[in-house]
Design brief:
Blueprint: E1 2-6, H1 8-22, E2 27-30, H2 32-36, H3 40-49, E3 54-57, H4 60-68, E4 75-78, H5 85-93, E5 98-100, H6 103-115, E6 120-126, H7 140-149, E7 153-160, H8 169-188, E8 195-197, H9 201-206, E9 215-217, E10 238-242, E11 245-249, E12 254-255, E13 261-262, E14 267-272, H10 291-306, E15 312-315, E16 318-323, E17 331-334, E18 345-348, E19 359-362
Parallel strand pairs: 1-19, 2-3, 2-9, 3-4, 5-6, 6-7, 7-8
Antiparallel strand pairs: 1-10, 10-18, 11-14, 12-13, 14-17, 15-16, 15-18, 16-17
Helix pairs in contact: 5-6
The chain binds pyridoxal-5'-phosphate (PLP).
Residues 30, 32, 79, 161, 200-202, 216-220 line the site of pyridoxal-5'-phosphate (PLP).
Length: 363
């Protein structure tokens, strides 16, 4: 009925661009959120074929799936910090690098590793402005205590996460500087901080000089950065389906809920079994972070309306406008101007992160 296609060739091209941009620094492929919607394991397989050996996850289940799929020696970094004993035990069982972002987390991990008579590998996370996970700069003594006193933790890396790489150079540079200050302070005390990393996709492409000892890249793999410009990356992911029915509207007839669209002349509609439930058309009006984003969002909606920017679908390779509201499971596409039959192919642009209820194939 419908298939979500991840184009291998585009993914491989993107990986090569990312590796070139990383310029020899290790790439940590972020496969959280079920591999950004494509499946952590199939995505990781393709990445491994291209030489990627480091992965970041946010769920124990993702780490387990990778290990069980034969990713025995690859390094896996858990980005999600925790103090939960069962989760930490599972991560150690899976030989995953844990993230320490609080003193409680450090104590918990150190205690569990001591109980197992082992040394747990971890990366320390610093909050330089994201305001979410991580030690804050004023908690320096707690950070130092990990290096000084936690004998059952081997810290092999340290990182921070940018809040605004997609939208603010100023804020990103401030975060980067804060990170440097903390690293210098730790080095000044003689602590080995290991691999330092801060770049996400947008930062790697906008300020490659910040690549340090590693970069953590997710959305760039899919060629779907939230930053302006696509840096030569190809958009990955589309939905393929077939026209289920053709429907003739006479002049003045309407289609879809609310009768929101009326035909000014006789119109031929192709009905497709894809709707907002599958993620189609749901990217409109997202990302209202700040007041000015809201204003901008509203202006772009207004502009879209004034310039009649519409949702489009490719039917038999030709761009056709969607008519009326997208339904939960269906939409209607205007095929008045093209040759179209029941069963013909339709291709819809849906972000892999938004897609749902479809089989994902790599092809
Ligand atoms: C999701 C995530 C990334 C990857 O971000 P992209 O913008 O998708 O490249 C990197 N680091 C952390 C901590 C993340 O949570």
């Amino acid at each position: 009925m419908r298939t979500y296609v991840a184009e291998k060739e585009a993914l491989i091209a993107n990986i090569q661009i990312i590796q070139r941009q990383a310029d020899g620094v290790p790439v940590w492929a972020v496969v959280k959120g079920g591999g950004y919607g494509l499946g952590a394991v199939p995505l990781a397989r393709l990445l491994r074929d291209q030489g990627i050996t480091r992965f970041c996850v946010t769920e124990v289940s993702e780490a387990r799936a990778l290990r069980e799929a034969g990713f025995a020696d690859e390094r896996i970094l858990m980005l999600q910090p925790t103090t939960d004993r069962a989760v930490l035990e599972a991560l150690l069982d899976l030989n995953v690098i844990c993230t320490i972002s609080t003193q409680d987390g450090a104590v918990a991990l150190n205690g569990i590793a001591a109980g197992r008579d082992m040394v747990a590998e971890a990366h320390v996370k610093l909050d330089t402005g994201m305001g979410r996970y991580g030690f804050r700069p004023e908690e320096f003594n707690q950070i130092a205590a990990i290096y000084q006193y936690m004998d059952h933790i081997a810290v092999s890396g340290i990182y921070t996460h940018f809040s605004s790489a997609f939208c603010s150079e100023k804020r990103t540079r401030e975060q980067f500087e804060q990170f440097q200050i903390l690293l210098d302070k730790l080095a000044g005390r003689g602590y080995e901080t290991g691999e330092a990393h801060c770049c996400n996709s947008a930062a790697l492409f906008r300020w490659p000089e910040m690549r340090m000892n590693g970069v953590r890249v997710g959305s760039a793999l899919l060629g779907r950065l939230s930053a302006k410009g696509n840096f030569g990356l190809r958009r990955v992911g589309c939905c393929e389906t077939a026209v289920t029915e053709l429907h003739r509207l006479s002049k003045g007839g309407s289609t879809g809920y609310g009768g929101a669209w009326r035909a000014r002349k006789e119109t031929r509609l192709a009905i497709l079994p894809v709707g907002w439930y599958h993620g189609f058309g749901t990217e409109y009006g997202r990302d209202s972070f700040r007041f000015r984003d809201c204003v901008r969002g509203t202006l772009s909606l207004l502009k879209a309306w004034l310039t009649k920017r519409r949702l489009y679908v490719r039917v038999n390779g030709q761009r056709c406008p969607v008519r009326g509201h997208v339904g939960m499971l269906h939409c209607a596409v205007d095929v008045s101007k093209i040759e179209c039959h029941t069963g013909d192919q339709a291709v819809l642009d849906i972000s892999p992160l938004m897609q749902k209820g479809m089989e994902v194939v790599f092809r």
